[in-house]
Amino acid sequence: MLARHRGPSPPVVDATRVGPYLRLVVVDHARAPCPHTAPMIGIADPEQAETDLSAGSLRCPGCAGALRPWGHARARTVRDLGATTVALRPRRARCDACRSTHVLPAVVAPRRVDTTAVIGAAVQASAAGTGYRRIAAELDRPLSTVRRWIRAVRDPTHVAWLRAQAVAWIARVDRDVISGLAPQHSALADALTALAAAAVTLRGRIVPHVRPWTVIGQITNGRLVGPPAPS
Ligand SMILES: [Zn+2]
Fold first, then answer.
1. What are the tens digits of pLDDT across the range 34-51?
2. Does residue 173 lie in a domain region?
3. Ligand 1: distance of its center to the CA of 200 in Å?
């Protein structure tokens, strides 16, 4: 939740002036997994990030200086639904003022090899009562991988954090959506419903061209199923 962020408050900007950047907070997770409570860049649209970075309108979380393009993190390939693969080159940025470097959130968490769409499909199926084996077979992923995702996502603290991210993003765009969220049969289903509502709301108002699971990946900072797996 936002109140758990430590350190100086990040600049809060008006969505209508800066497109998708409802709130600019940055974390450097180039090397180490960061805790949920660490400040992060909240970006709903990964492509717009490139444009805004070039224009100098992304702000450093430490000092609010302008972030500039600073090469890329190591390129890697991740697996999307089915047999599709996606090539990623996470963008690195450096602050003009304090010289600290940051890696912008990508469509997947550091060190995970599947996109949020794949992991999200597994989580959604589990929340609906489908067993590990059937999920693994349907997604063509190892049983051990699916089990690891589902166990991680069901951590109560993490489930609460997911819902809080969703509600915070909805609140920036349309508070009425929050009161319309129907209670579900479990905390995880509540969180997924809130994330889906956030994706629908953000796509409807701000980022219509971004895939729903990509929006969810971005607003959860690539942590749909918790911190990245250790390398
Ligand atoms: Zn700085």
1. 333 333 445 556 677 788
2. yes
3. 33
**Domain assignment of residue 230, yes or no:** no
CA of 67 relative to ligand 1 center, distance in Å:
8
How many Å apart are CA 59 and CA 53, to the nearest integer? 9
CA of 60 to the centre of ligand 1 (A): 5
Q: How confident is the model over 150-166, as pLDDT tens digits? A: 999 999 999 999 999 99
User: CA end-to-end span of the chain, whole Å?
Assistant: 27
Please give the distance, rounded to the nearest whole angstrom, from the Cα atom of residue 95 to the centre of ligand 1: 5
Q: What is the pTM of this model?
A: 0.72
CB atoms within 5 A of ion ligand 1 belong to 60, 62-63, 65, 95, 97-98
Number of compact structural domains in the chain: 1
DSSP 8-state assignment for residue 67: E
Q: Which range of residues forms the domain containing residue 166?
A: 2-219
Give a yes or no: residue 109 inside a domain: yes
Does residue 121 sit within a domain?
A: yes
Helices (H), the chain: 15-18, 46-55, 116-127, 132-139, 143-153, 156-173, 176-179, 187-205, 212-219
Q: What is the CA(227)–ligand 1 centre distance, in A?
A: 25
**How many angstroms does the Cα of residue 40 sit away from the middle of ligand 1?**
13
